[in-house]
From TrEMBL:
This is Pentapeptide repeat family protein. InterPro entries: 5peptide_repeat, Pentapeptide-BTB/POZ_domain.
């Protein structure tokens, strides 16, 4: 058992650590070049600035791991779980990341040139300023991912799925090599505002009628935002009223009760799916804040540990203060929520107050967003 090991700066090059439990270990600046870490558990470990050149990390558990500024040239990471991790500024040139889960992982400024990303899940990931020149993205799933100034020149696509992404700032779209058709969602066309090169769309197999219609999006300034309303089972009336009002304002929304244990256990509701929405709104009623299940889930979001932590749009949570308790409580949850974006819905049963608060909420959704990474 090596969990919580203190191995900062250690020389472990070419060592056999296959299957080792290194959970929550400190391996900063360690030399693991050529090491065998196949199937190892490195969850929540600090691997920043470590050297993994040509290491075998196949099937590793690397969730919530700090690998920023690490070097992984030619490393084998096939089938590894790297979700919710920090790989910013990492050097992954020529690495094999096929079949890996990189959901909600920070890959900003990373070097992924020539990397094998076949079948990789890039859901809610951050690829701002990343270099994917010549990378193989066949079969990859790219959903709700940040792609500001991302280089895709000479990347290989085929049976690649891309949904709810803004491609307006991607570099090299017209240089992508298409090994087969890809699935380009309508919401990607909408968010890209008619600025996707026709050569890319043709190469991906998009029908000519949609390519022709794509130009119309360039004159559409209104943002299309999909909203998740999250509260407790006691918030049914408030949630239903909000959802109906948002629908009238052409803002589609859905509702999840975080304390609906039966739905969660059956799989009918999955809180991890929050990443597929553009904005997450917390219904901060007295019932939700006093409910141990709902308040605990709210706390994970505020602390950056829940699904919204990796929102690719970079948009903050929105708290709807529906009761005085939201402003009266001084615990970490309410204090943290008050430090963020708050819309005051107290007295929402009064139609005038409700409409005023609703207007402020809709304005927050429909204000054009700056997609620049800085």
């Amino acid at each position: 058992m090596l969990n919580k090991a203190k191995l900062s700066g250690a020389d472990l090059s070419h060592d056999d650590l296959s299957g080792a439990d290194l959970t929550q270990s400190d391996l900063r600046q360690a030399d693991l070049s050529g090491a065998n870490l196949q199937g190892a558990h490195l969850w929540r470990s600090n691997l920043s600035r470590a050297n993994f050149n040509d290491a075998n990390l196949g099937g590793c558990t690397l969730g919530r791991t700090n690998m920023s500024n690490s070097v992984l040239k030619g490393a084998d990471l096939k089938g590894s779980s790297i979700a919710f991790s920090n790989l910013s500024y990492a050097d992954l040139e020529g690495a094999d990341l096929s079949g890996t889960d990189l959901s909600q992982t920070d890959l900003s400024w990373a070097n992924l040139s020539g990397a094998n990303l076949r079948g990789t899940r890039l859901i809610g990931a951050n690829l701002d300023m990343a270099d994917l020149t010549g990378a193989d993205l066949q079969g990859a799933t790219i959903i709700n991912t940040k792609l500001n100034s991302t280089s895709l020149s000479q990347a290989v696509w085929g049976i690649t799925i891309i949904a709810n992404c803004d491609l307006t700032r991607v570099i090299g779209l017209d240089d992508i090599r298409h090994a087969g058709p890809s699935m380009i969602s309508l919401d990607t066309l909408s968010r890209s505002k008619g600025q996707i090169p026709a050569t890319f769309l043709v190469g991906a197999g998009v029908p000519p009628q949609l390519i022709a219609a794509h130009d119309a999006y360039s004159t559409t300034a209104t943002a299309y935002t999909r909203v998740l309303l999250l509260g407790s089972g006691s918030d049914t009336e408030f949630a239903a009223k909000l959802r109906a009002s948002l629908a009238e304002a052409q803002v589609p929304s859905w509702v999840i009760a975080a304390d609906d244990e039966a739905a969660l256990q059956s799989g009918a509701v999955n809180l991890d799916h929050a990443v597929y929405y553009d904005r997450l709104v917390l219904l901060c009623t007295a019932e939700s804040l006093e409910n141990p299940i709902t308040s605990r889930y709210f706390a994970t979001l505020v602390n950056g540990q829940g699904p919204s932590a990796g929102f690719s749009t970079g948009e903050p949570l929105i708290a709807l203060a529906a009761d005085d308790i939201f402003y009266q409580r001084e615990d970490r949850l309410c204090s943290g929520l008050r430090d963020g974006v708050v819309v005051d819905f107290r007295g929402w049963n009064d139609e005038a107050r409700y409409n005023e608060a609703l207007s402020a909420l809709v304005q927050a959704f429909t204000t054009p967003r700056d997609s620049a990474p800085f």
